[in-house]
From TrEMBL:
This is GTP-binding protein. InterPro entries: CobW-likC_sf (IPR036627), CobW-like_C (IPR011629), CobW/HypB/UreG_nucleotide-bd (IPR003495), P-loop_NTPase (IPR027417), Zinc-reg_GTPase_activator (IPR051316). Coiled coil: none annotated. It catalyses: GTP + H2O = GDP + phosphate + H(+). The lineage of its organism: Bacteria, Bacillati, Actinomycetota, Actinomycetes, Pseudonocardiales. Keywords: Chaperone, Hydrolase, Nucleotide-binding.
Amino acid sequence: MDGRIPVIIVAGFLGSGKTTLLNHLLTNNAGARIGVVVNDFGSINIDAMSVAGQVDSMVSLGNGCLCCAVDARGMDDLLSRLARPGADLDVIVVESSGLADPRVMIRLVLACQNKRIGYGGLVEVVDAAEFETTRVRHPELDQHLWFADLVVLNKTDRIDDTAHARIRELVAGLGKGTPVLSTAHGRVDPELLFERPERPRRDDVARQLSFDELLAEHDHDHADSGDCHPHSAYETVEFTSDEPMDPRALMAFLDERPAGVYRIKGFVHFGLPGHRQKFSLHTVGNYLRFQRSRWEAGEQRRTRLVVIGTGIDADSLRQRLASCVADGEHGDGLIEHGMLSVLRFTHS
Ligand SMILES: Nc1nc2c(ncn2[C@@H]2O[C@H](COP(=O)(O)OP(=O)(O)OP(=O)(O)O)[C@@H](O)[C@H]2O)c(=O)[nH]1
């Protein structure tokens, strides 16, 4: 696999539902291979990992707080073990206790020297029912929310609609336009967090349901009513343009994504000499990656992006993207310079 493996930090105070979220992702992995770093294996759904052949993709620290137990070198070693080519992981999830300082965790991942690793963002899990009491006990929760790229407002089944609306507003006000996703039992759509891998399917002669599919079906059968449709919890905005995009303007947009945006996927047509290929774009939180490939024969050269988040102003988002369409007034030099910043994030 080319490209970097995004490392997503899942943080949250005691009992907020981190492990529940992680287990949900492991059982509904959309075909992605997930590596995990956890404090202990006790409550991880090992069955889900072992049927996916991923038992060797877990690293346990076995002791307390990740940010105290591991230094930069330690984290580098940990992540490098998981990122080894044979493991073929698509994403790594680091479960971090509420007591770990998120800034330290982010720094540890960013300091990783391994070129196969990229920081994929901080997901803060919040117990909606306990939010106000947790905040009194741990004022640093506000800081967690500020650094988060996505807030998962969990346990919404435990509060009524009025309390939900109040807590949601409070949580949103503490972020910097950070999207807030309401869930019960950590049921986040995995495609919101990572890319569905494009692996060639092994079409066996008599193909049976894979363990992944069986597990997904099992989980679906047992899903509580009320939150079976994670898609309804966030919005998607589509943007298409047949005109080429201006790389400088698009990178400026990506550097400063509008409030509420958590994920962007799709492909971009720059159409510049030497860069006429299809640039697939994939962002999760702070993670940004382009991948360059050929257009299929007969495929229309066009940009098509899907922006996912919560509380997005769809009209202004489309306008901002429309303003990234090349208007031909910039000199070639400037555009070429803009292309360099795209290429910094590009894997062929
Ligand atoms: N009612 C309700 N219970 C939940 C929800 N999510 C998790 N729980 C329960 O809350 C408890 C704590 O969940 P965990 O996933 O272990 O939380 P955690 O953040 O990993 O906990 P620590 O590792 O101890 O910090 C478990 O008993 C879960 O079954 C939810 O959305 N609603």
